[in-house]
Design brief:
Elements lengths: L1 H37 L10 E6 L7 H7 L8 E7 L7 H10 L4 E6 L8 H9 L7 E4 L4 E2 L4 H6 L7 E11 L4 H24 L11 E4 H6 L12 H11 L3 E12 L5 H18 L1 H5 L6 H11 L4 H25 L12 H15 L4 E4 L2 E6 L2 E4 L1
Helix pairs in contact: 1-6, 1-11, 1-12, 6-12, 6-13, 9-13, 11-12
Amino acid sequence: MHATLTVIAAVCALLALAGAMYFALCVWAARRFRREGSKVSGIDFEPPVSILKSLKGLDPHMYAAFRSHCLLDYAEYELLFGVNDPNEPALELVTRLQRECPQRKIRVIQCPKVLGLNGKVSTLAQMLPQAKYEHMLINDSDIVAPPDYLRRVMRPFAGQRVGMVTSLYRGLAGKTLPSKLEAFGLSTDFMGGVLVARQMERGMRFALGATMATTKRVLREIGGLEPLVDCLGDDYELGARTAAAGYKIELSHVVVETALPDYTFSSFWSHQLRWARNVRDRRPAQYFGLIVTFGLAWGILSVLAAPFLWWTWTAFAVVALLRILAAATVGHSVLGDPSVMSDLWLLPLRDFVAFAVWLTSFAGNEIEWRGLKFRVRNGKLEKL
């Protein structure tokens, strides 16, 4: 028994040290991203822009998100809201927005057709012909943007062969613990992985739904939005197809905020599992490599297996230090999340929950989305 526990402790300690190396990579990637941001040219590129938002249901702080897009410091842009249902409840907020911001070009586009299982993309595909400008930006309905958002997102298009610009985001947690865990995970886990992938792959090969800025020309070259109407990870696919067409995807140095609902543990688990199975389906090798990102959990398990061995405590101390450093660097220094430092006590819980989601994700490919059950296969949804 003693020998078995020692072997288990050794395996866990090795995985913990591998995790420590990963967290060191997060710190390096985050600091490099910050240095790049300080060197960004002050030359502005401000073409007229169409902002497209697909509406389905009500999100927390939704009106604040809408209003932030009327306060952008930008010369010329329009706001387009697409709806499939003429009785969509979010339309009341759009009407209020039109009344309170008459100086802005705000239009509602009726999108009655159901082109596929991804309602968001189905709506966006019908909105696209109605967009007035060549440059466009697609983002989620719950995104709160700072006044310089559009200027900073459009600036990289002044470069050569830039086909898309995306951005990092942080979560505004609700009142429940699961909501806080998701927001904390976004700032200290997921965004760190994005920055590491950007460095390891020598550029972005995917996009994030918080910001997908592109042009009509690029969309035509990659076949438009219609091929994505059955895709779960439409943001990933749109970015991957843009990169595959030979275009650069730039990561803007502006950070936006998304409001998270007051998840129950059940809804939180469903959301996390949906994201995990989609990533596993699209990037299986990289997804298996996530085993090292649970370094803190491995360090704790190593100590629990053999608390009498000095090297288990050493491995735990090293990985814990680097985990905290990575969380602070990415979450606080890069994303500017004001809650990260006070919520560091959530790290062990967050990592064990993420580890459990990762393990569970291998037990099938079924997900739940908007109350319906689907199967994910080759990036596409299949209704059960």
